[in-house]
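Box 3.1 A note on notation
Throughout this textbook, protein chains are presented in two layers. The first layer is the amino acid sequence; the second is a token string describing backbone geometry. Keep the layers aligned when reading.
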Amino acid sequence: MLFYGTGGAAFGNIKTTWNGSNSNNQFGWTAGAGIEFALAQNWTAKVEYLYVSLQNGTCSTGCAAPAGGPANATVSLNENLARVGVNYKFSF
């Protein structure tokens, strides 16, 4: 059985379609933990959790702001991911 932690950089291409179409790249970080265990000689299974935090994004709401132009909204781009997997280790 193997317990592990992971972390690093994160990247995402964010596309909005609220008021037209807009696409931009956001960068951030990720961290998580998991457990992997042996099922048979070359087979393992794992369960993993990751938290991803990207830079906040802004997009036009299409509504008039008090100053006259369209108002912008700030959007938080955070994600919680749970993954389950099965692995096969090749022997050469």
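The two ends are 23 Å apart (CA to CA). DSSP finds no helices and four strands in the chain.
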